[in-house]
Amino acid sequence: MSQPCDRNAVVPVPGRLDEKLGEFWVGNPWQIVAFGHNLSAFERNRAYWNVGGQNFLEISYLSGADHDGDSRCVVPADFRGVGQLDLIVRQAGGGPLLYYENQMPRRNFLTASLRGTQSNRRGIGARLTASVGGQVLVRELFPSNTYMSQAPAVVHFGLGEADVVDRLTIRWPSGKVQEIKNVKANRHVLITEGEADDAAAVVEVTPGRVIEP
């Protein structure tokens, strides 16, 4: 398949097509669906459940995730603002979008956005380490940017029964290491690079508020 950089380009058919083999040609690959074609080989999607950090359980059928559309990417995000990560699947065939709502029992959480001062404004590339009740949770802020989709620049921690993060350590792209203690759960916080005082560094984000770039 040819994929020209010009979305309006039309590539002529390179030779005779064998319709018995199901061959087809569309001069512009972005118009494949409009011509009634689908590049999907109908491989079914798979979903796996992490079991205690030791193993994975396949829940594709049980979750309804075993769709046979031509899926190209999956974006996890808290689309409902309830502290649970749902999934959006972007497809090239079989319907453009699939939405999977997380219906597992709700537990405590903490989500964080970053505001860099010496680092880039969004803190892209930062590593966040949360110490919670003897456990260590590590997240890196690298919003996925893939086929016609992008994840939000937000870090999500699932905390289980814990209602506070004992210590949150941010290693910024600038190399600066920032430590914040006793961060309360079940909220979205905005953390500013370089603030020594916890109260100044961590600001709770009101639900629905747009964080300025």
User: What string gives the helices and strands in order?
Assistant: EEHEEEEEEEEEEEEHE
The N- and C-terminal alpha carbons lie at a distance of 39 Å
The share of residues in helices is under 10%
Beta percentage is 35-45%
Task: Describe, in plain words, how this protein is organized in 3D.
The chain has 213 residues and is mostly beta strands. The protein has a domain at 108-204: Immunoglobulin-like (Sandwich), CATH 2.60.40. The chain has helices at 60-63, 198-201; strands spanning 48-51, 55-58, 71-77, 86-91, 97-100, 108-115, 127-132, 135-140, 145-146, 149-150, 155-160, 164-171, 177-184, 187-192, 202-204. The strands form 5 sheets. The chain has a 4-stranded mixed beta sheet. The protein is elongated and about 70 Å long. The two termini are 39 Å apart.
SSE topology:
Blueprint: E1 48-51, E2 55-58, H1 60-63, E3 71-77, E4 86-91, E5 97-100, E6 108-115, E7 127-132, E8 135-140, E9 145-146, E10 149-150, E11 155-160, E12 164-171, E13 177-184, E14 187-192, H2 198-201, E15 202-204
Parallel strand pairs: 6-14
Antiparallel strand pairs: 1-2, 3-4, 4-5, 6-11, 7-8, 7-12, 9-10, 12-13, 14-15
